[in-house]
Amino acid sequence: MTKPIKVHMCPAGPNPWKVVIVLEELGVPYEVNSFPFQEVKSKPFTDLNPNGRAPAIEDPNTGITLWETGAIIQYIIEVYDTNHVLSYSNLKERSLCNQYLAFQISGQGPYFGQAGWFNVLHPEKLPSAIERYNTEIKRVLGVLETVLDGKKWLVGDNITFADLAFSTWNDRIDSVLLCAPEAKFDGFPNVKEWHERMISRPSWKVCMGKRSQLMDEQGLLSNGMPKGISNIAEYEVKIKADAEATARI
């Protein structure tokens, strides 16, 4: 019997849910260790991931611990998708899936994350940085729009891990760009339809239900900030105060 994979995460971020949705789609058992963002740079988590970024996984079935979502997803596919539910067996399609996963982790994730930082979290507004990263979001969406022309999925006729890897960051575009939810895919109809196909799947609903529960348990807003906190400067003050209070106990 397959033992559950332990997924260590801060629930607010998009990256942990990329891993969880792949596990859900494959029906691989897992359990979540959810912890506050302020603990990501300290032990015991940094014993698992010295880079201090979530998620990380521990697989008791193989004894392997991994961090970095691209590596984790490729590992899950190699070990647990032997029936190719979210992948292909032939060289061309396998390589194309890995290509798009690389694009997600090198293009979409970093640029969308920086846009979110400068639009929402940075304590002062820097118009040049905001313009740069907002433009990069549109560029990445433009690439996907072109690739998806006349297609339902990025590779072949079936959904793969490559598609799912884009879903969580694309779902945040409105909160990153500070636009209306219905406007986040304006000008990118292929991307919009593709995204809607993914978020209509049972796996997505399960993941977002778990995220909402964990966020509520930690008293977090949808953007990951604690309730009552409006920017990263205020959050850093809170983190410092909480650490000092804990040290006095």
TrEMBL record:
<feature type="domain" description="GST N-terminal">
    <location>
        <begin position="3"/>
        <end position="84"/>
    </location>
</feature>
<keyword id="KW-0808">Transferase</keyword>
<dbReference type="InterPro" id="IPR004045">
    <property type="entry name" value="Glutathione_S-Trfase_N"/>
</dbReference>
<dbReference type="InterPro" id="IPR010987">
    <property type="entry name" value="Glutathione-S-Trfase_C-like"/>
</dbReference>
<dbReference type="InterPro" id="IPR036282">
    <property type="entry name" value="Glutathione-S-Trfase_C_sf"/>
</dbReference>
<dbReference type="InterPro" id="IPR004046">
    <property type="entry name" value="GST_C"/>
</dbReference>
<protein>
    <recommendedName>
        <fullName>glutathione transferase</fullName>
        <ecNumber>2.5.1.18</ecNumber>
    </recommendedName>
</protein>
<comment type="similarity">
    <text>Belongs to the GST superfamily.</text>
</comment>
<dbReference type="InterPro" id="IPR036249">
    <property type="entry name" value="Thioredoxin-like_sf"/>
</dbReference>
<dbReference type="InterPro" id="IPR040079">
    <property type="entry name" value="Glutathione_S-Trfase"/>
</dbReference>
<dbReference type="Pfam" id="PF02798">
    <property type="entry name" value="GST_N"/>
</dbReference>
<dbReference type="GO" id="GO:0004364">
    <property type="term" value="F:glutathione transferase activity"/>
</dbReference>
<dbReference type="Pfam" id="PF00043">
    <property type="entry name" value="GST_C"/>
</dbReference>
<feature type="domain" description="GST C-terminal">
    <location>
        <begin position="90"/>
        <end position="218"/>
    </location>
</feature>
